Amino acid sequence: MFGGHVMPVAVGEIDRDFFLRGKPMARVQIPEENCEIREPAEIKAFLKQYGIEFEQWDVEGRIGTDATNEEILEAYAPEIERLKQAHGFVTADVINVNPETPGLDEMLAKFDKEHLHTEDEVRFTVKGSGVFHINPESAPVFAVTVESGDLISVPKGTHHWFNLCSDKTIRCIRLFEDMSGWAPHYMEEPVHNQYSPMCMGPSYLEGEGGDLDPEKIVQF
Ligand SMILES: [Fe+2]
């Protein structure tokens, strides 16, 4: 499912944090502008322009690595309640996706094409990671990588698509008003094929800015 032009980068050239931490970290990447935002407060401010909420909640120390779905919902009950009040959500559940999930590729194929929903898409990632691409009406497409501890709320009507990272693993809390609101409505002229489903990409750290160099790209 990661066919096409996946464009991760060479060790040392790109994402030192990824290799140090062994997993992706929250970030916003704007391919058209060769721009990347890593600072959580800046990510939050950038996303707010598009009505997208971004928060980071503690995971370590709040839930064990083998916590059950019920334990996760219990641990985050205060935050879930706050979101319910703010968005009018009725209920919450926990979804677990990993390489052994039956029908994984078919399931992911529903969401890796540009679409919108008729209700907000709210996800708190407990484990694993993924990338939301957002296609705003009047600004370039940007990618938001979310990982353990990140909450993202994509407003209804927002054009977006989603990819898992290479470990094909994500465990997250979902909130909803009505499950029918999750049905994806696809675009007539989608742009998702123009973007890499990357979980890490060229970092444009100070002093390392520059154009995307295909020589620095490795399969991810
Ligand atoms: Fe979606």
Describe this entry's structure for a reader.
This protein is an alpha+beta fold and 220 residues long. It has one domain: Jelly Rolls (Sandwich). It is built from five helices and eleven strands. The strands form two sheets. Strands 1, 2, 3, 4, 6, 7, 8, 9 and 10 form a nine-stranded antiparallel sheet that branches.
CATH superfamily: Jelly Rolls
Bound molecule types:
fe (ii) ion
In sequence order, what are the helices and strands, one letter per element? HEEHEHHEHEEEEEEE
- Can you identify the CATH class? Mainly Beta
SS-derived structural category = alpha+beta
Question: What is the annotated CATH architecture?
Answer: Sandwich
Percentage of helical residues? 10-25%
Number of domains: 1
Largest sheet: 9 strands, antiparallel
Radius of gyration: 17 Å
Mean pLDDT: 82
> Proportion of β residues?
25-35%
Q: Could you give the distance between the termini? A: 12 Å
Shape: globular
Q: What is the CATH fold-level name?
A: Jelly Rolls
- Number of DSSP helices? 5
* Total number of beta strands: 11
Uncertain runs are: 1-14, 201-220
Salient structural properties:
220 residues, alpha+beta, Jelly Rolls, two-stranded antiparallel ribbon, 18% helix, binds fe (ii) ion
Explain the layout of strands and helices.
Layout: H1 16-21, E1 27-30, E2 35-37, H2 40-48, E3 53-56, H3 69-75, H4 77-87, E4 91-97, H5 104-109, E5 115-116, E6 121-134, E7 142-147, E8 150-154, E9 160-164, E10 170-176, E11 185-186
Antiparallel strand pairs: 1-2, 1-7, 3-8, 4-10, 5-11, 6-7, 6-8, 6-9, 6-10
